[in-house]
């Protein structure tokens, strides 16, 4: 079985970056939760959770992110989300989880193609 998250990549300053490779949903939440818990227990320093290849699809996915954030803090670590799509960002902000988001520069944000508007008839 393929891992739900990619292996750690050092990003300097004692931080590690890990990419979620599956959409966070009820179906994937248990595997992602277990992998993040293991990651949090096994290291030190901040964790950057790259969501550019994923997104939160339902409440179980959201709960997985929030629980990982809390668990990291309990272990003296900081977990921050980077590369989140606009929907995931809105969900985190509405849930009062601004501290979970790491603000990105325009160059770091994923490029999303603009939607074409249909001509008015």
From TrEMBL:
PROSITE patterns assigned to the protein according to its UniProt record, in alphabetical order: STAS
Superkingdom assignment: Bacteria
InterPro entries: STAS_dom, STAS_dom_sf
Gene3D superfamilies attached to this UniProt entry: STAS domain
Pfam families from the UniProt entry: STAS
Record domain STAS: where: 18-96
The protein's name: STAS domain-containing protein
Organism: Janibacter melonis
